[in-house]
Amino acid sequence: MNAELQTCVLAPRASVRQLARPKMATNLQNVLDELGRRHRSAARVVVAFFMLDLVLLAIAYFAGASLYRTGDPSIIMGLWIAILVFGLGAFVLRRTKFAALRLKDIAAVKGTSALLKTLQDTTIQVASIGGAIALMGFMVTILTGDWTNMLRASGVAGIVLVYGYPFRSAWQRVVIQLA
């Protein structure tokens, strides 16, 4: 009688435990799937801006002289200052948005999905700044007719894009530590 009572009482608990494990695994699988989707889309944006950088550099090299339009030297200097500010601003933005305490608060208050969205959005913002630097360098090339200006701006944009590239292992580490 005692054995029958134990099996009746323990059977529902065992089934509850069995149901809880797949749910946790499913939740982990959902997080990993979302991480993969968001990482893939952020990486595609960074690569697209890097390709834009290379295309603008090729256009400046092959057609820089034919694109030449006279420009005011103060506009050219203003563009170089903007390139400098944007380059430094990209580093500051990424460091600020990816601060450990900020990410920890986002994960605690809004959850893992919001954490992944923050990682994705910040990566896209930094990549956009890199693309803007490349476009400003192309404008300098148009205003000066010298393709080496685009080469310099392209180098700055490339550094920003490489710095902002999302490494999946780093994202996984952040999610595991904070989620």
The amount of helix comes to over 70%
Distance between the termini: 46 Å
Please provide the ordered H/E string of secondary-structure elements: HHHHHH
Residue stretches low in confidence (pLDDT < 50, at least 5 long) are 1-22
Strand content: under 5%
Which whole number gives the mean pLDDT?
Answer: 87
* Count of helical stretches: 6
Please state the CA-atom Rg, rounded to the nearest Å: 25 Å
Taking the sheet with the most strands, its summary is: none
Description:
With 179 residues, the protein is mostly helical. It has one domain (45-178). It is 89% helix and 0% strand. It has 6 helices and no strands. Helix 1 runs parallel beside helix 4, helix 2 runs antiparallel to helix 4 and helix 3 packs across helix 4. The longest helix is centred in the first third of the chain and has 62 residues, at 2-63. It starts with a helix and ends with a helix.
